Amino acid sequence: MRRTFQINKNAIHCFYGLKRFNPEGLRVKIYNFHFSRTCSSSSTNVQQMKYESLPTRGLVRLSGEGVHEFVQGLMTNDINHLDNTSSLYTMFLNTKGRILYDSIIYKYNDILLVECDVNDIHNFIKHLKMYRVRRKIDIDNVSDVLTAGVVFDPNQNLAKNCDFNGTIKDLEQIVPCSTIYEHDSSFELKVKDILIDKKNIFIYRDPRLSALGVRLIHSKDLDIAPLLQSQNSGDSYTTVRYKLGVAEGIQEIPVGNSFPHEYNCDYLPEVQG
């Protein structure tokens, strides 16, 4: 069953989600029984690769003494998770608890690279600088030098491990807390094996769901697709996201309008409980 929701006045997007924000002010739960995101997100046995650049995503570099502590007080997740992993999904909220920016934070030595919507990156930097006060932290827009891309399997069967008969009571079993954060690393390792000898390409798993593939951070003038023999067929990255119920960017998550749970964030490793 496909549900269509108007995210803003200029764009209509399709999501497969349990919860969604109604622009008219009514917040409703939607029970959708063609739902795959919260079932196993592992890819098909025969994995294919497709690379897409992400021109709507920008990168902000944070560096300096106490940068982890600085970010910790501004976002929904726990920055200390980066002690055990290299990427982290989080939200930056306003004082009323509504979403300002969805972000993925990447760790590189003592530097943090924060991915956000490039169309509002200057306001995001302004937001960070407002709370910097006297801290000796550098906040720089590096989107002119670095870019983000994604490598994913365009033909994966996202619903292959779903097994429920569509009754309301089954909804309680769709998102078991013990399995929602399990991550299939096989695709990530495959990409790393191919690009292991390539310089200036930083490979990070997508911290949200393994079905969303692998994030690449690299210089803007580097052509990645030939290195991976990227496929042109199959679903686009945006289609995969929509099928998984994962929103991204200010066109899909209007600034200051909604709470995290209205965009399935309570089912993603974005909020530290």
Give a brief description.
The protein is 16% helix and 28% strand. It has 273 residues and is an alpha+beta fold.
What does this structure look like?
The protein is an alpha+beta fold. The chain has helices at 67-72, 121-132, 171-174, 186-195, 225-228, 237-244; strands at residues 3-8, 11-15, 19-21, 27-29, 50-53, 57-64, 87-93, 99-108, 111-117, 137-141, 146-152, 201-205, 214-219. It has a domain at 50-160 and 197-267: Probable tRNA modification gtpase trme, domain 1 (Gyrase A, domain 2). The protein is 16% helix and 28% strand. Strands 7-8-9-6-10 form a five-stranded antiparallel sheet, with helices on one face. A four-stranded antiparallel sheet has the order 5-11-13-12, covered by helices on one side. Strands 1-2 form a two-stranded antiparallel ribbon. The longest helix is centred in the middle third of the chain and has 12 residues, at 121-132. Mean pLDDT is 76; it is low at 1-45 and 161-182.
Q: Residue ranges: pLDDT <50 for 5 or more in a row?
A: 1-45, 161-182
Shape: globular
Strand-pairing-aware structural class: alpha+beta
Task: Give the strand line-up of the largest sheet.
Answer: 7-8-9-6-10
Major pleated sheet: 5 strands, antiparallel
Please compute the radius of gyration using only Cα atoms.
Answer: 18 Å
The CATH superfamily of the domain at 50-160 and 197-267 bears the name Probable tRNA modification gtpase trme, domain 1
N-end to C-end Cα span: 31 Å
Mean pLDDT: 76
SSE order? EEEEEEHEEEHEEHHEEHH
